[in-house]
Amino acid sequence: MNVFRPARHPLGAALIACGVLSATAATAGEVEVLHWWTSGGEAKAAAELKATMQKQGHTWKDFAVAGGGGDAAMTVLKSRVVSGNSPAAAQIKGPSIQEWAREGVLANMDNVAKAEKWDSLLPKAVADGLKYQAHYVAAPVNVHRVNWLWANPEAFKKAGAKVPTNWNEFFAAAEALKKAGIIPVAHGGQNWQDFTTFESVALGVGGADFYKKALVQLDAGSLKSPTMQKVLETFKKVKDYTDKNAPGRDWNLATAMVIKGEAGMQLMGDWAKGEFVAAGKAPGKDFVCVAAPGTAKSFTYNVDSFALFKLKDAANQKAQQDLAKAIMSPEFQEVFNLNKGSIPVRLGMNLDKFDECAKTSAADFVSSNKAGSLVPSIAHGMAVPSAVEGAMKDVVSQYWNDDKMTAGAAMDRLVAAAKNK
Ligand code: GAL
Fold first, then answer.
1. CB of residue 389 inside a 6 A radius of ligand 1
2. Angle, CA of 3, 6 and 11, to the nearest 5°
3. Is-contact 339 273, C-beta < 8 A?
4. Using one digit for the tens of pLDDT, what is the confidence trace for 260-300?
5. Domains of the chain, with CATH numbers?
6. Residue ranges of E strands in 121-239
7. CA 316 from centre of chain
8. How many whole angstroms separate alpha carbon 196 and alpha carbon 212?
9. pTM of this prediction?
10. Distance (Å, rounded) from C-alpha 286 to C-alpha 404?
11. Best residue among 148, 302, 386 to mutate for probing ligand 1, ranked by most atoms within 8 Å of CB
12. Helix, coil or strand: residue 90
């Protein structure tokens, strides 16, 4: 029994019969949507989804659980589903979609997907990840690029520094920013943010093949190797350029430091662009986006999607299908991604309204796919089972925080973490 079933008023049927209520109202339902989009840019993007549903006469029930990266949201979701009280949709992505589908709690969206031709509108690899046993159970909203560096050009000018394209330049710029009294790197010490930095260092220092072998295939010989040693040492060096208030800081507050020029740069996915844009800042002028050092030819992807849960109420099922349909519509893909900082996942979209960062992202998505350097983000749940991801994040954050822990010890623990498969 769905406890969110809206009370049906007998008057409703009478009014429909008299033609007083529209057909839309007759089939209007409620969609309860779990997400963690609570920062400035994220909230604006989420508001577009709400508006899209309300325009169709449906009721939007917001189920926002704050916390970048979504760890808190996933904990709350688990308890809701276990108690038989699933929302209509939840922001779930990557291998976790399969994990939830295996529990038998996700709804089949094939009707919508067929009618809307999703198979021909999505990159095959993306479509496959949204299906369980060949049936669609989730709808995708975007493609985020994770391997970005965001910089404040004023701060760089003040420091006489150049926006870096490799790790040597990165540390040279960091030194110059520090000398100019500017916090070089805006960071939030939360494990998903630590890992966001770590995976960009791994990609920049080790290259795409190393990244795939070590962090996607979880090859023990790569997880413990001279290359990984170098990655870990470079990663740890980044910490020297963060400020003492970094532990626990939310990612959007770190972005705000770059916006205000208190900090010079931030390693973060392009949801950070949503923050710059929401603050009225223009790319190329007030802020700069460049690929994380050494990763210009690679692309770490993070596709946000909504898994759809089985519902009992017919009107709510209809609302849920309308949500899935709306998510993939060109209108929504455009307006949502303009706010979110990401690019549309739907193929063949016109990007005229998008800025240079988004256009670069779209071009690099295609070229890295051809070159074999399009890689899934571990930090953002796209690459490995959630248990492995959690264990690896713990190791990387321990290493970041504990100055006594050697790279050798971290590598041994990474090998052990990878066995959580
Ligand atoms: C990511 C998610 C993004 C953004 C970010 C920070 O995992 O894919 O949409 O919300 O977390 O909250």
1. no
2. 145
3. no
4. 999 999 999 999 999 999 999 999 999 999 999 999 999 99
5. 30-144+302-364 (3.40.190.10), 145-300+379-418 (3.40.190.10)
6. 131-132, 135-136, 138-140, 144-145, 148-151, 183-185
7. 27
8. 15
9. 0.93
10. 39
11. 302
12. strand
